[in-house]
Specification:
Strand order of the largest sheet: 3-4-5-6-7-8-9-10
Distance between the termini: 31 Å
Number of helices: 10
Largest sheet: 8 strands, mixed, barrel
Helix content: 40-55%
Radius of gyration: 19 Å
Shape: globular
């Protein structure tokens, strides 16, 4: 289906769901942008590469490209109503869910020109989204995927792991497993390995397809046991049937660290 037709389809769907005439999806020069308040959302795709063969790409990580946008008064007013008039809102979960859905739909539409490569598309999902959906995680987005002519097996649902959500890990694991049951792949994303015991326990319980770690934060760590911890992490991921990713690599030393500690996949500007 042509991009313009898909844009019209998702605009119509958004309007029906929210009982609004606001049409958030825009097609501009063969690229999709989406309006959320006075924010315009776009997509940037960063290749995920094989560590030992960086020219080999297994997929792309989707990142938000955000800019401001001056909307017409009527549209601005409608958006404010969408965000504020929520009689059943719980801790802004509904707003997070809307934003996540708009973002992921934007990424999916922009990814279509790359879909022929048959690689995986990594999409981040806010933990609050997973907690805000009580059942059937992934059902809404599955319809988006099918409408675009793609399959859930090519989509990796990636969730950032952070200590504030530690007490919600059981619910988050249940939600991620719901995605898995619908055919999605699952990824856990860590910024650091300071709490490696808790992190390793979560990996063992979930057995994600991918586990990623930020090289940017690792560069800031002063730990004599860092190499051992990284090797332990990559070995655990392999043992549970997944693949480890060293992300946000910007320097040669980080690329060498990925090789020396057993990370199977890499991503970052160093390889661009």
């Amino acid at each position: 289906m042509p991009l313009q037709n898909l844009v019209e389809y998702f605009n119509d769907r958004f309007g029906q769901e929210h009982r609004s005439s606001f049409r958030p999806f825009l097609l501009e020069e063969e690229s999709i942008s989406t309006l959320f308040g006075q924010i315009k959302i776009g997509s940037v795709f960063s290749p995920i590469r094989v560590t030992q063969k960086p020219a080999e790409i297994i997929g792309h990580a989707a990142k938000l490209k955000v800019s401001t946008h001056d909307v017409q008064y009527l549209y601005s007013d409608e958006i404010e109503n969408l965000l504020s008039n929520r009689p059943h809102q719980d801790n802004n979960f509904e707003t997070i869910i809307d934003f996540d859905r708009l973002s992921r739909t934007t990424h999916m539409l922009n990814y279509l020109p790359l879909a022929h490569l048959q690689g995986a598309l990594f999409l981040e999902v806010d933990p609050r989204h997973i907690l805000g959906i009580k059942q059937d995680h992934g059902a809404y987005f599955e319809e988006v995927i099918e409408q675009c002519g793609l399959q859930t097996k090519n989509i990796v649902i990636s969730m950032a792991v952070s200590s504030p959500y530690a007490r919600h890990y059981p619910e988050l694991i249940t939600g991620l497993n719901n995605y898995r049951h619908r055919g999605y792949q699952i990824a856990l994303k860590f910024d650091y390995v300071a709490q490696e015991g808790q992190a390793f326990k979560l990996i063992s319980k979930l057995s994600p397809n991918y586990v990623s770690l930020s090289a940017r934060h690792v560069d800031e760590v002063r730990d004599n046991n860092l190499l051992e911890k990284l090797r332990t992490l990559s070995a655990l991921v392999a043992l549970t049937g997944g693949q480890s990713i060293f992300q946000q690599i910007e320097q040669k030393k980080s690329a060498l660290l990925a090789r020396n500690t057993g990370f199977e996949l890499v991503q970052g500007r160093y390889y661009e």
